[in-house]
Amino acid sequence: MRSAWRTIAILLSIMLVQSSLLAWSAARHAPTWDEVGHLAAGVSHWTFGDFSQYCVNPPLVRTVATAPLAFWMPPEMDWQGYSDDPRLRTEVQVGRRLIDQNPERFLSFFRIARWTCIPLVLLGSVVCFLWGRELFGDLAGLMAAGTWAFSPMVLGHGSLITPDVAASSLGVSAFYALRCWLRESTWSRVLLMSVLFALALLAKSTWIICLAVVPMVWLAWRLLRREEPRGAPWRVGRDLLQLTASMLLVFTLLNAFYGFEGTFRRLGDYEFVSTRLAGRMIKDRRFDSDNCFRDSWLGRVPVLLPKSFVTGIDVQSHDFERAIRGNGWLSYLFGTQRIGGWWYYYFVGYAVKEPLSWLLLLVLSLPLVMLGKLRGCAWREALALWIPAAAIVVLVSSQTNMSRHLRYALPALPFLFVWTSQYAIKLGETRGAARWLVGLAIVWFVSSSVYYSPHFLSYFNETVGGPAGGHRALASSNLDWGQDLLYLKEWMEEHPEAAGMRIAYFGCFDPHVLGIQYETPEPCFEPHDGEYGQRSLGPSPGWYAVSANYVLGSTSPVPNGRGRFVYFGKPAYAYFQLFEPVDRAGYSIWIYHLKPPEIEAVRRELGLPP
């Protein structure tokens, strides 16, 4: 009994530290690129009762996040530019207007919305603990909960209102409930499993793969019957009946959350914008659409999903297709910018974004289990962990049109954390070097993550030199998502000599809302609108703050300090790679002090006049 209470106390301590780190990170970082749209979309769900905004992601997480705003502190909104046509993606413009109209309160809006989502992250700690403990013992459960709780990716994205970590928590919870049902097939467990799978789908449409993964896990579990007690029956009919009932309940709950909007609409009645579903290239999704199923028998089949859910999958597919049309959605890996991605991108991402000690344990676990050096779980228990994790990684790796966001593969992590928790057996049962090595790996994992707090979004491990060297490997949301603007404001207040600083900020809103007065740096080429003279192009003396993504070659629009976003169509600020930053705001905004001698040398290299 005393041991059980001690285990619970340690688990609660882990969760308390985790929630503190999440709350701190949420309070210290500016709204990130996707969060602006998510917050506006969440407010629109409560205001209009529809889920058309930001339909590429299901609405559960942002609806939960914005509940306090809807009931206790509603933002001022005039909804100019709002449209319920999900193909127009107006949530970003609406989000910018929300910030502009609430300059004194918008940071509080995001902070409260982020804090509201913390319980969804803590759910992952509880489930990892339960699953690890049932497989390998109390110490393993604590190790599984600890690796989830202190994972930099979990802490970084879990402190935002984006759905990736919440979807990971709900996904591993659903598969844990599936495992419990496989061990004892009762109707109460069918109900729990169905609710959790419905919530996972409402958090992230990626979990639509459950339609294939659940039968695979069930089949693998039942085929490995030699691991059950002798004489244990396999009631195929009962299992199929309960699985069918579970699936029907999942779809019912999913549609009920959407208010049965467009449920049973025929597939041929949809207007699709992605080439995959429209059957042809769509030049402008605002005004053109088609449906490749319209003239086939599939077009008459009713769809069991809500209209916004189906449209979201279509629009998301269209967004991925945009990446290979050369419109600026470039992929970046180890200094290379290109149209399209790499199938191994997510494997490389794991190798540089998670603490190195855990990666070593993960890699070593496979041969050691095969050799019998670790007390591995039964093969069907192992497959219950590995099948969903592998399905996630295979799915996201197959989308090679674009490789930008490692967070897409985040739902695989909790299953891997539970798997590697079996090393905790060495802590409890051995006295040799293995025990000390595992203990050192755990301390290394936690300390390397917490050391860089609250900069978890920019975390990189030692293979690339930590966060300061992360730009050598990855970019975009893996390094710079606009999160460090508040640190830049603090830096400017502490350095009055940098007055008149020019800023290129990679964010979804204009920093002038925070009282930052600035102009954008000059590009190194002549824009189409002729705004810049030849002598004003390229570097000139002064102080600059440039987001890492722009230095690495991003072509995303740049806020200009006057309420507009400038789109150059080319990497406008990649020439800052030729200079060394003198400081950083956080790890994602690089600060330069350019002086005449070095400027003239670079201008000659770029072919610009003195």
Description:
The protein starts with a helix and ends with a helix. By secondary structure, the protein is mainly α. The protein folds into four domains: 2-15 and 119-260 and 331-362 and 375-450, no CATH class; 31-116, no CATH class; 267-325, no CATH class; 484-606, no CATH class. Mean pLDDT is 88; it is low at 528-535. The strands form three sheets. The chain has a four-stranded mixed β-sheet. A two-stranded antiparallel sheet has the order 1-2. The chain has 24 helices and eight strands. Helix content is 51%, strand content 5%. The chain has helices at 2-28, 33-48, 60-65, 67-71, 91-101, 106-116, 118-136, 138-150, 152-158, 164-183, 187-203, 210-223, 236-257, 275-278, 307-322, 345-353, 356-370, 379-398, 413-420, 424-429, 433-450, 485-494, 548-551, 596-606; strands spanning 331-333, 336-338, 502-504, 542-547, 558-559, 565-566, 583-585, 589-594.
Q: Roughly what percent helix?
A: 40-55%
Oligomer: single chain
- What would you report as the Rg, rounded to the nearest angstrom? 25 Å
Could you give a short account of the major beta sheet?
4 strands, mixed
Average pLDDT reading: 88
Uncertain spans: 528-535
End-to-end separation in angstroms reads 78 Å
Number of strands: 8
What number of structural domains do the residues give?
Answer: 4
Using the alpha-carbon principal axes, give the shape: globular
Structural class: mainly alpha
Number of helices: 24
Strand content: under 5%
